[in-house]
């Protein structure tokens, strides 16, 4: 997998989708909000304007009517000359008449009074029961202010106040000064109701002379009720303030006069910023801080209180009779648009929910679409891990993914089939249909992990030779028949395998007793006892068996290795059946080590020929030499007896032989060239049959001769008699070819092999070497009946030379001479020596030998 971060198919498709959705939602919400804001400010402005207009209109109505009433009173009193100094009874009647008959439509009128230049006063107060109470101060009341319970002068007096002077009242002076109808300043009544009062004032003239003031008190509280009512209907908070920002009226309920708790004194009018109503208070604060009443015209502003947004307008209210007030209006946002914001929120919520449902539905649908792809990817991953049993993906309903999934499944099935085929190829031997080595290990692991038993490894002796001589086809047939025989004789619960070219492994569960083990081994030997009928001829084979007692403390590969060691042992010792013991393992380990060293030695060219002279018995001259391999190591010289058998077994003999052959030929060529050895000197080089049966061997010999410039006539190749197997066409062929090249062939260790003398004539050879064992057995008495004598006689007919090996004593040499054996070789003349230690005076070898013998004899005598 690359280092790039990877995202899933699902993310790749869903992410942009969700992003686009979120972006669209965002833009929508933004524009909505924007247009909502505009709409809100638009609507608030209109609403504020219309409500303020309403208030403005009502307020001017509220003030205008009493003002006009008062004006008409002043006009009529003056016009009809109702004022008579000292007695106010005409004015009294007129006021009562107007108050109770004409001004019923002006309910805000509270008190209508009349104060004259000469300090008299008459007035009526409207009571809660719609009655009127009379207040008089003139001659009739002896210039005292008398307040009656009724509307006439009677005995029913509520109270009498002396020293009352209307001319010092706050309603009198403005008119007295200005001589025109005006509003009084607002003032709080001194009574218990703490009501604030505004009075319409008008002057009264008689004969163009200012005579009196008519005053109509207005209870502003009634306007509070109007505002309260408006607030209940529209939720708009309204307040009216004067230029000092003191409350005139408001919709907040409660008094506009201080009860003495705040900064203001008891009875003083409250500032709007001191209102008990938080909205009004907040709005008034804004007005105060921003000095909005100093500016002319309508001002708008907004603020937020307790999470609610309020839109405000402050509007000046002026009338021509000297009032300068301001109408403050504050409406909450929620009120402006009614249910709209909530509905909008609801619809957004609904939209969001629907979109979420849509996305989820989309995801589910998309999942269904990608499910086959995802599960295919998973299955592919499983396959890559080697899990062949994982479930296969199912194709969905979409054409392309179905194609993909089907193609994948087909591919996976093909892979599975090839894998199974491969597995069975690994598990079973294709030739015999028995288990292969791997299959055997597998089956044994499954089968016999816990139980005890015995493992037999059966090897066919010299199968390679059989293969070579009968051909591979017949070799295969032999193996097939062998497998069939084993199958036929062994119980079905025994595991059977061909673990190597000519090796069969048998695992016998529960065979543990000594006799049973032996019995089964014998039976296996018997299985191979009868001849194998091939196409042309029938073949007898022998088998060797390695046996291992199996316990579960070791694994199967160890059993197999041990059985192989036991089998090698059986073959080496020719015991047929060998039961594994740990010592064999040691020997085998030694072998393994040795093998490694041999390989290294080949690389380092550590193999050297030592030369042992071959003597002409008649003349005593050296006519040749045998090259004998030595392994020259730093630790010393190792004998061929120690490494040749292993080298032959493992095929390394070919390389070792190559080194010996090359060095021998080179040494000989040099020796002949330098005159050290004679022109017809014969160098004997030992050969393994394995070398001879190698296809490239002839080429190797030719190259060696031409490389070293040694003439072929100087070379003799020695082949051990017992190793030349009958009928091998390659060996005989090669021997013939070598001969044809001019090279001589010697049969080594003659007499020890099993080939009969009768067979000898089939072999192409030039020289026989009589084995040392026959030479050592020579004695004077039975000389003529000795094997050496027989060999000499037989070979008289052949034109071959004879060499007697292992001549150690002069006596042996003499007897050989007597038997007319022509040549000899042995320690008597010289041990094998390195080339540079070759004695220079070997021509006199016999002479030397004689002298040596005599010396030894003398020594022994003495
Ligand atoms: P061989 O070919 O029969 O060689 C003769 C062996 O007898 C040599 O032993 C030699 O040292 C020994 N011998 C010679 N004279 C006497 C004697 O008077 N008395 C006794 N007791 N022994 C004597 P070596 O060198 O240890 O070789 C043993 C065998 O190793 C050889 O037997 C030969 O079969 C094999 N061999 C040696 N060199 C080679 C080689 O280069 N190639 C192959 N394939 N085999 C070799
Ligand atoms: Ca030899
Ligand atoms: Ca020999």
TrEMBL record:
Region (Disordered): 843-862
Keyword Transmembrane helix among record annotations: yes
Keyword annotations of the record: Cell membrane, Membrane, Transmembrane, Transmembrane helix
Domain of life: Bacteria
Record-linked SMART domains: EAL, GGDEF, HAMP
Regions that span the bilayer: 12-31
Topological relation to the membrane, as annotated: Multi-pass membrane protein
Protein known as: EAL domain-containing protein
Species, as recorded: Vibrio pomeroyi
Taxonomic placement: Bacteria, Pseudomonadati, Pseudomonadota, Gammaproteobacteria, Vibrionales
């Amino acid at each position: 997998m690359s280092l790039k971060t990877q995202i899933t198919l699902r993310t790749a498709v869903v992410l942009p989708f969700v992003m686009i959705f979120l972006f669209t939602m965002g833009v929508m919400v933004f524009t909505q909000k924007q247009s909502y804001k505009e709409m809100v400010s638009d609507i608030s402005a209109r609403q504020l304007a219309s409500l303020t207009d309403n208030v403005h209109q009502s307020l001017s109505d509220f003030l205008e009517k009493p003002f006009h009433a008062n004006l008409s009173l002043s006009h009529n009193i003056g016009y009809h000359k109702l004022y008579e100094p000292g007695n106010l009874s005409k004015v009294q009647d007129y006021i009562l008449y107007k108050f109770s008959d004409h001004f019923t439509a002006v309910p805000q009128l509270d008190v209508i009074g009349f104060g004259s230049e000469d300090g008299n006063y008459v007035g009526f107060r409207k009571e809660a029961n719609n009655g009127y109470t009379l207040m008089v101060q003139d001659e009739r009341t002896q210039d005292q202010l008398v307040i009656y319970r009724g509307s006439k002068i009677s005995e029913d007096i509520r109270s009498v106040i002396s020293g009352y002077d209307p001319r010092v009242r706050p309603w009198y002076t403005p008119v007295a000064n200005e001589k025109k109808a005006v509003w009084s300043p607002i003032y709080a009544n001194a009574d218990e109701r703490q009501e604030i009062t505004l009075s319409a004032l008008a002057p009264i003239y008689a004969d163009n002379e200012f005579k009196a003031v008519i005053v109509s008190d207005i209870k502003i509280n009634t306007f509070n009720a109007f505002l309260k009512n408006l607030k209940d209907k529209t939720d708009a908070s309204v307040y009216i303030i004067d230029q000092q920002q003191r409350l005139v009226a408001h919709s907040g309920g409660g008094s506009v006069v201080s009860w003495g708790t705040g900064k203001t004194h008891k009875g003083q009018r409250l500032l709007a910023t001191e209102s008990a109503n938080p909205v009004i208070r907040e709005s008034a604060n804004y007005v105060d801080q921003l000095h909005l009443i100093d500016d002319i015209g309508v001002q708008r502003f907004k603020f937020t209180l307790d999470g609610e947004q309020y839109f405000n307008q402050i509007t000046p209210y002026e009338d021509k009779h000297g009032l300068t007030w301001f109408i403050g209006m504050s409406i909450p946002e929620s009120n402006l648009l009614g249910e709209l914001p909530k509905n909008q929120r609801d619809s957004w919520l609904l939209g969001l929910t629907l979109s979420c449902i849509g996305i989820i539905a989309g995801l589910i649908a998309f999942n269904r679409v990608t499910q086959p792809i995802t599960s295919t990817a998973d299955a592919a991953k499983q396959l890559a891990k080697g899990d062949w049993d994982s479930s296969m993906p199912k194709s969905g309903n979409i054409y392309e993914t179905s194609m993909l999934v089907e193609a994948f499944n087909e591919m996976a099935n093909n892979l599975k089939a090839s894998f199974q085929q491969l597995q069975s190829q690994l598990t079973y031997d294709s030739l015999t249909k028995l288990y292969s080595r791997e299959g055997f290990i597998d089956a044994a692991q499954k089968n016999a992990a816990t139980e005890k038993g015995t493992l037999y490894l059966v090897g066919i002796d010299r199968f390679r030779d059989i293969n070579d001589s009968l051909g591979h086809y017949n070799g295969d047939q032999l193996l097939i028949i062998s497998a069939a025989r084993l199958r036929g004789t062994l119980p079905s619960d025994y595991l059977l395998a061909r673990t190597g070219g000519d090796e069969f492994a048998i695992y016998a569960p529960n065979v543990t007793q000594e006799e049973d083990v032996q019995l089964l081994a014998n039976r296996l030997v018997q299985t191979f006892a009868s001849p194998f009928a091939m196409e042309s001829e029938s073949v007898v084979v022998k088998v060797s068996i390695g046996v291992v007692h199996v316990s579960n403390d070791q694994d199967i590969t160890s059993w197999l290795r041990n059985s192989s060691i036991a089998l090698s042992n059986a073959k080496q010792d020719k015991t047929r059946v060998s039961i594994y013991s740990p010592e064999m393992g040691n020997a085998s380990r030694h072998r393994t080590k040795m093998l490694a060293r041999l390989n290294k030695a080949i690389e380092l060219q550590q193999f050297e020929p030592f030369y042992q002279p071959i003597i002409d018995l008649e003349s005593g001259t050296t006519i040749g030499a045998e090259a004998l391999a030595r392994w020259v190591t730093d630790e010393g010289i190792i004998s061929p007896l120690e490494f040749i058998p292993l080298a032959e077994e493992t095929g390394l003999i070919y390389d070792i032989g190559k080194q010996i052959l090359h060095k021998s030929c080179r040494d000989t060529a040099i020796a002949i060239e330098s005159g050290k050895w004679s022109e017809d000197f014969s160098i004997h080089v030992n050969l393994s049959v394995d070398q001879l049966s190698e296809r490239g061997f002839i080429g190797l010999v030719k190259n060696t001769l031409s490389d070293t410039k040694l003439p072929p006539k100087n070379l003799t190749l020695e082949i051990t008699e017992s190793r030349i197997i009958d009928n091998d066409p390659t060996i005989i062929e090669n021997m013939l070819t070598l001969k044809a090249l001019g090279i001589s062939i010697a049969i080594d260790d003659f007499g020890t092999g099993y080939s009969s003398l009768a067979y000898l004539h089939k072999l192409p050879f030039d020289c026989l070497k009589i084995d040392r064992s026959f030479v050592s057995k020579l004695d004077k008495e039975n000389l003529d009946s000795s094997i050496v004598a027989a060999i000499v006689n037989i070979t008289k007919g052949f034109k071959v030379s004879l060499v007697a090996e292992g001549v150690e004593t002069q006596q042996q040499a003499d007897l050989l001479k007597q038997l007319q054996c022509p040549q000899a070789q042995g320690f008597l003349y010289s041990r094998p020596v390195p080339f540079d230690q070759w004695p220079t005076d070997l021509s006199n070898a016999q002479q030397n030998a004689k002298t040596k013998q005599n010396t030894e004899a003398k020594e022994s005598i003495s």
